[in-house]
Design brief:
alpha/beta; seven-stranded parallel beta sheet
């Protein structure tokens, strides 16, 4: 497994966590949109050892890492196994560890609107939104559920308009922004269901 990525103080780094089981064009699309719309210097894909909210374990980590590298070829995107390297299981643990290791780096946690809709189920979800900027990428079917979610309601005062989304990484948390982007309807679940990923 590769060493931890390099980041300099003052940089804004987007963190896209997930099982990537398998990665697909939708992940690539939201990553490129996030780089542009959230004013990010780089995006790190955090390929997780496993998702605590999912019952069945994912494909072997080495297979998922290689599939990510094969798919996402961009000079400002780094495929990482940070959570396995740090021994963290939950997002809040990972963010705490990264903030200790990278003082002065501004992290932006990236998530789809479907994740915002159930974000209040995540361990230490309030700590996450109060300690790191959050960039939410919507697709048409998820907008209403996300906007009515508990997290969106509790932190309504911390929402940054989409027109100013490029500054969220420079703001003091809590700061989150919700952007709409044209999006593919691909999903890892559907790809597995079709038997296209072993």
């Amino acid at each position: 497994m590769d060493g931890l990525p390099v980041a300099k103080s003052g940089q804004v780094i987007g963190l896209l966590g997930g099982s990537f089981d398998p990665p697909h064009a939708g992940h690539v699309h939201i990553t490129k949109a996030a780089l542009k719309r959230f004013g990010l210097d780089n995006v790190w894909w955090l390929v997780s050892p496993g998702n605590p909210l999912k019952e069945n374990g994912p494909a072997p980590m080495s297979d998922r890492m290689q599939a990510c590298r094969d798919l996402m070829d961009h000079p400002r995107v780094r495929i990482t196994g940070i959570e396995a390297q740090l021994g963290t299981r939950y997002t809040a643990q990972t963010i705490r560890a990264l903030q200790r290791r990278y003082p002065g780096v501004h992290f932006v946690w990236l998530m789809g609107a479907d994740n915002l809709a159930q974000f209040h189920r995540w361990q230490d979800w309030r700590w996450i939104i109060e300690n790191v900027a959050v960039g939410v990428i919507a697709r048409p079917g998820d907008r209403i559920a996300a906007r009515l979610s508990k997290a969106a309601r509790v932190y309504a005062q911390s929402k940054v308009p989409s027109g100013a989304s490029h500054i969220i990484g420079r703001l003091h948390a809590p700061a989150w922004s919700f952007i709409n982007v044209p999006m593919s309807d691909q999903s890892s679940t559907a790809i597995r269901a079709r038997g296209e990923w072993k």
